[in-house]
Design a protein that fits this description.
Number of domains: 2
CATH topology of the largest domain: FAD/NAD(P)-binding domain
Distance between the termini: 34 Å
Shape: globular
Structural class: alpha/beta
Helix content: 40-55%
Number of helices: 14
Number of strands: 18
Radius of gyration: 21 Å
Strand content: 25-35%
Length: 384
């Protein structure tokens, strides 16, 4: 039986453990955090990500957490509506093979699918990695040393596995920060089954109201020193950046101030590596290619990457050769998503009021039947 050590119990790591476990591998997942984590932002699974969720058998369980699509209202800074994008627009553009869930629900579904098939050690880190042509030896912070056929670094954009094996200097920091967190109950000023979105120069604030257990807030803004903003923490940083807004934003910020523990708050970075594997060590997900939240495809790529990695390893007894084949097939999509994310920054954090007006015109155009069809076909081509 082939053995794999997987670093990281997020979407990429758990999906890899699930796929390899079903293929007959013995898997061990190690996770730095002391327990499972959850975060409150939405993820869309479409294209290759939806297909991977289907192959991994996740869709029936995910349906129980499905949030569905919703109406979006673009608003002014004081919360007054500008115009509405009906739910039907999202349905027409995204197509039937799409599912929207909270990231925490996706991670929970993966955990439940794999927890009986793999050993998961929380509060454990990798302290040393050594490999030869036949094995990789992984020293762990609990004092043990694991020998395996494969080491998978799925430990996120700040990957310690990447730093240990590939060195540093591959993270491209962008001048933005992102914050997202769940909201308890409905959101004042935001009708149920809808979202309000304010887009101003250099910043976006979005509130989603999907009922008592399905509400969340998303914020992003441009800044000169993202690391300093992250050091301030989400309560102070987001309060300073968005405290002047009206609508449901003040309530969302008050909620964050009461309990910031469930918030995701980080600088925006991409990972640009010339190669995702070295011998019997491979990086996957944000550790290898982080596309950022601006791409809207990170979770889908993590699932697709894990599923396709398992398929490549099934086809090859030679693990390094399988890793190269896998990367050659997946890299074009990751590169494309990174490029789309860089362009998407002009939508989430437009540099000027002129860009905002152009974005508004583009969004309004999507509501036209003929344009809507063109957008849908463009999305379908992008997700093939």
């Amino acid at each position: 039986m082939r053995r794999a050590v997987i670093v990281g119990a997020g979407i990429a790591g758990l999906a890899t453990a699930l796929r390899l476990g079903r293929d007959g591998w013995h898997t061990l997942v190690v996770e730095r955090a002391p327990a499972r984590r959850s975060s409150g932002y939405l993820v869309n699974l479409l294209g290759s990500g939806y297909a991977a969720a289907e192959r991994l058998g996740l869709l029936p369980a995910l349906r129980a957490h499905e949030l569905g699509l919703f109406t979006t209202v673009l608003v002014h800074a004081d919360g007054r509506p500008k115009f509405t994008v009906p739910r039907a627009i999202a349905e027409a553009t995204l197509g039937a093979r799409t599912i929207t869930v909270f990231r925490g629900a996706l991670e929970a579904t993966l955990y439940e699918a794999v927890c009986d098939r793999t050993e998961i050690r929380f509060g454990t880190t990798v302290t040393g990695i050594d490999q030869d042509p036949d094995r990789v030896r992984v020293a762990l912070s609990d004092g043990s040393t694991e020998e395996a056929d494969l080491l998978v670094g799925a430990d996120g954009v700040h990957s310690a596995t990447r730093a240990e094996v590939f060195g540093t200097g591959f993270r491209v920091d962008l001048p933005y920060v992102v914050g997202a967190f769940p909201l308890a109950g409905s959101v004042a000023g935001v009708p149920e089954s809808s979202a309000t979105t304010f887009i101003g120069p250099g910043r976006t604030a979005a509130l989603v109201n999907l009922g008592p257990h399905g509400s969340s807030a998303f914020f992003t803004y441009r800044c000169a020193d993202p690391a300093a903003e992250v050091e301030r923490g989400p309560v102070d940083a987001l309060g300073a950046a968005f405290g002047d807004l009206g609508g449901g934003v003040p309530e969302a910020l008050r909620h964050l101030g009461k309990d910031p523990s469930g918030a995701y708050f980080d600088a925006v970075s991409q990972i640009v590596l010339p190669r995702w594997s070295s011998g019997r060590v491979v990086l996957l997900g944000d550790a290898a290619w982080c596309v950022t939240l601006f791409a809207g495809h990170g979770a889908a790529l993590a699932l697709a990457g894990a599923d396709q990695l398992g398929a490549a390893l099934q086809r090859h007894d030679d693990i390094p050769a399988a890793l190269i084949e896998w990367e050659n097939a997946l890299r074009p999509e990751a590169v494309k998503r990174q490029a789309l994310a860089r362009r998407g920054m002009l939508q989430y954090a437009p540099p000027s009021r002129f860009h905002i007006r152009m974005n508004d015109l583009a969004i309004r155009a999507i509501t036209l039947p003929g344009i809507r069809g063109l957008v849908r076909r463009g999305i379908e081509r992008a997700n093939r």
